[in-house]
Here is the input.
Amino acid sequence: MPTDKEYTKILMWPGYRVYQHEIDEKTKTLRLWVRRKGGNRKMECSGCGRRVAEIYDVGERAVRDLPWSEFRTTVFVEVLRLKCPECGVKREKVLLLPSKAPFSKRFEDAVGEACESAAARQVARRFGLAESTVRAIDLRYLERWAAARRKPALHQMGVDEIYMGKKQKFLAVVCNLETSEPLWFGQERKRETLDEFFKTELSAKQRRGIEAACVDMWEPFRLSIEHWATNCRIIYDKFHIMQHANQAVDEVRRAEFFRKGGKMRDLVKGKRWLLLSRWVNLSTSKKNQLNTLFALNRRVMKAYLLKESLDRLWTYRYEGAMLRYLQSWIDQLRWQRLQPFQKLAEMLLDHLEGILNYCRTKVPMGVVEAVNGNIKSLLRRGRGYKNLHYLLLKAQRMAATKTEFVVFKKAA
Ligand SMILES: [Zn+2]
Here is the structure.
């Protein structure tokens, strides 16, 4: 049987030694009792962090630690209460005990790391914990990570919304385009929603440092950005504009669907996804399906072609050329009587400056899309993200570690 000294060596808790142990082979449990080593005299108040010399009393806490082989391990730690001149009687700060929960720091780290690549449910099963406990540990793990890191500066931001369903409706997402990291979530899509971000998250200097913002053509957000970030150029990016183009295609599809009966109805049915896909991304059989549809319905075909050709707008690097292309695209709409596209054209003309700004300030393409995709994949996998603070930390960690990043297939 190993001695306390040997247990101390294997346990590897800096500054602490094992003074008693108990091993139960039947239940496969190992219990270790530890206290400070003789030379470890540095005691800090858990309230204010200052060094305190006077001990009030001595207590004990039991925490679960990493398993030793197949043995589940519990460590009983001697914890002092100190008489802090600032805070009164307070527990000492112990690095190995990061919270009031009955787990050691490295146990929590192991659970948190496991949560980076697996759903809470699976991690719970692996560690023999309740799912809610796993989430609580993961949240603390992420909070500690966030508190210890230096946040990158914000020069280019993206603003977008994610549809969360009937109840919660929209989640506004602010992200850093250079680091592909979400920064903040807002619960609505009003001007005040984004005002809140600028007010609470950034200093005046940080607000002045923002040079570009990629946003949807959504007036309330534009007003907020113009008010708070005075050096910022608004850019209506491809991703958002193409979302509107897709909506226009879908409106045409639906109108045709309701107008025609019988055979046509069946043909249009279930083609929504196909019509929203880019031609280059479709397989031959899917292309054939669309061609059959187009042969029977010219309006749906025209709508699809208009969307496809609008996509090429962002291949232009000079605003003059971009403007000319847009003008010729709008000219194609004449005599087509495709109401949704006429509406889209008006919208584009109303937001012309912000579209052309794409040629004036270079912003990375597809970041807003990728951040969105990551958040959606977390939501799909997690189910338990009623806590938006947790969801945000999770998505930030995902961006920082690039775990499972490119979930979004980008069209060439
Ligand atoms: Zn104190």
